[in-house]
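Please produce the structure of this protein holding S-adenosylmethionine.
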Amino acid sequence: MTENALSPRGLLERWDSQQSAYVAHREQRFQSMLDVLRLHLSEPFHVLDLACGPGSLADRVLTAFPHARVTAVDYDPVLLRLAGAVLAEHGDRATVLDADLVRAGWAEPLVGQRIDAVVSSTALHWLSPSQLLGVYTALADLLPAGALFLNADHLRYGTGNDTLKALSARHDAEVQRASFTAGADTWDAWYELATAQPGTAPFVAERRLRFADRPPQPHSPLHFHLAALSTAGFAEVGTVWQYLDDYVVFARR
Ligand SMILES: C[S@@+](CC[C@H](N)C(=O)[O-])C[C@H]1O[C@@H](n2cnc3c(N)ncnc32)[C@H](O)[C@@H]1O
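Below is the modeled complex.
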């Protein structure tokens, strides 16, 4: 073990405190998603976690619902490896799937499986508006009537909401300052720690190849997500949680 070697769960804990620096009320946001799953579904159910990272939300779902199954999807080999190690604690209730959400056909391995809910957090802002519509259309094809979609993410304010935009930016800066002062890792510091773990080098090289050409996308505002979900075929759309520009978007198939 090198000096910086951490267990998968230790790395996940460092990830959670790093992410909480960028998402002020992250645990409350997760809790709102777990509440909706509990209130709408009956166990056993199957949840798809899109862009699962190290398995943070999938782990919370599997812990909260001891008879649920989760399929956790991501495209970053470093994070997929960590998610696999963390979620292995839940045995065969967890499956990790390597898929690129911007590629047509990413959902093919899931066809024929019953999926009761799709969740995602702090991730879909990586997709362009047309890619988002593609993902929502694939989900509408995949999901049975009544199934849920819950997406937690910053949906930035645009022109016409200058005051809200400024307040949100000031609040983000305040929370980051306090979190980093209290010892949370920055995004870069966490990645450095993760890539320094024994056996990670080949996954880092593969990650570099896969994400070489992924520029940040224009922000899709809340009204875009709601319209895109309706257009894709979801019967009911809305929000279940909001704090400034941070939302949990809800849709029912
Ligand atoms: C900030 S992390 C969020 C991880 C986790 N959901 C959480 O909230 O802790 C964003 C995730 O989106 C994933 N991601 C970005 N683009 C993707 C794509 N095209 N296909 C699959 N995953 C993607 C990244 O690999 C990363 O794991």
